[in-house]
Amino acid sequence: MGDESDPGRLYDLTAARTSRVVLAAYSTSFGLGARLLDAPTRAGIDAVYGLVRIADEVVDTRRGDGAADLLDELEAETGRALERGWSTNLVVHAFALTARRCGFGHAEVDPFFASMRTDLTVRVHDRESYERYVYGSAEVVGLMCLAVFLNARRRPGEPLRVPDTVLVRGARALGAAFQKINFLRDLRTDHDELGRAYLPGVVPGRLRRRDVEAFCREVEADLAAARAALPGLPVRPRIAVAATVAVYERLLARLAATPPEDILRARVRVPDTMKVALAARAAGGQLLGHVASARSPRPRKVLA
Fold this sequence. Notes:
Elements lengths: L6 H20 L2 H6 L4 H24 L4 H18 L5 H13 L3 H13 L8 H25 L13 H21 L1 H6 L16 H21 L5 H23 L2 H4 L8 H24 L9
C-alpha cells in the first residue's frame, strides 16, 4: 500500500491491516474468497467487511442500553470520514479510503445503517420490512464490493468504472443470497437470543418443510442472478466470487436437506476442509475458462 517510512501511508497500511484482522476473525467463508483477490482489491473488500462487521457487533453483541448511541456515533464518524478521508477509528479510516477511491458513499452507507438500526427496534418483519432490511443490510454491501472489484486498481486520474445493469443486479442478488442463507441457519439464535424473526410468515418455533422449500427457491433465484453476472467481473474477482458462491451453494443445499426441526436445534455448517475443496474447484473452473477464452482465436472478418 505504500512506503511504511511515510507516516501517512503507514497509518493507511495499519488501518488496512486492522480491517483484515476483523475479516479473518469473523468469517471463514467470506474470507476464503477474499484470499483469492489481488492485494488492492482484497484490501478494499477487507475494509468494507470491517465496517459492516463492527456495526453488526454493535446491534448483535453489544445491543441493549447504549447500543443506539454507539451506532449513531459509528455512522456519524463514517460520514465525517467519507468527507475528509481520515478517521481516528482505524476500521472507519480504511473504509473511507476505499469508498473515496472506488466511488461509493452515502447512497450505500445510509441504507446500511438504517437497516442496522432496525435491529434495535423491529422484532418481527413482514414482507415489506424484510425486503427493505435485506436491501440495506446486504444488497448495498454487494454494491460496495462490486465498486471495489471494478475500481480498486484504478490509477489516479483514471475514470471510475461504472457497472452495467447485469452486474448491479448480480451484486445485489449475491448480497441478498448470503444474508438470506444466514437468516435460515441462524433462525433459532436470532429468535431465542436476539428476539428477532426476519423471515416473513415463518414462526421460528414452528418451521415447516414448505417454508424451507419456498425460502430455498427464493435464494436459488438470487444465486442464479449472481452467477449470470460473473462474466462481467475482472478475472480475480470473478474467481473469488465463484469460490464463495460455491461454499454458500453447498450450505444452502445442506439446509434444504436438513429436517426443519434440526435447523431449529443446531447451526448447519459446511466443514472447513469441504469449504477449501469447493472453493478450489470453483476457482479452478473459472481460471480454466478464462485461459481457454484467452487462447481462443478471434474470428476473422470476411471481406465480401
